[in-house]
Amino acid sequence: MCDTQTLAFSAEGYIVRCTDCKRMQMAFGAVAIMVKPKQLQQLKEHASLELFYRDICIADPDTKIVSLPINNTTMLCLSTNELTALNNLLDQATALLEVYEMLEID
Question: CATH for 4-103, among 2.30.31, 3.40.630, 3.30.70, 2.40.128?
Fold first, then answer.
């Protein structure tokens, strides 16, 4: 059985990982998926780029206009508001993972 460690948590979702097997689960909105560390980092990079290059003058920030790939068969379809919330969640999780790696904490 996995011993989970919370990497990030918000009203929109969470990211946890098992301290033994290092598998991570990300829940956001109505979706919960298992991700590998590399997938989480790639998702973070995609989300950051989308936020940076996305036209912020969109009339309705709740319209689902962003698609972020998780793997070859899974994509998240998000609004600009959801993208911002997901990016914040990913920021928290990746920052904490970096700290754990520096401290070598499992």
Answer: 2.30.31
Task: Rounding to the nearest 10 degrees, give the CA dihedral for residues 80, 69, 51, 101.
Answer: 120
- Residues 2-34 have pLDDT tens digits of 788 999 999 999 999 988 888 899 999 999 999
pTM: 0.88
Residues with Cβ within 8 Å of 80's Cβ and at least 6 positions away in sequence, in order, are: 54, 56, 58, 61, 62, 63, 65, 66
The C-alpha atoms of residue 82 and residue 64 are separated, in whole angstroms, by 9
Query: Is there a contact between 50 and 66 (Cβ–Cβ < 8 Å)?
Result: yes
For residues 3 and 21, what is the distance between their CA atoms, to the nearest angstrom? 9
- Banded pLDDT at 61 (limits 50, 70, 90): confident
Q: Cα–Cα distance between 60 and 30 in angstroms, integer?
A: 21
The β-bridge partners of 5 are 17
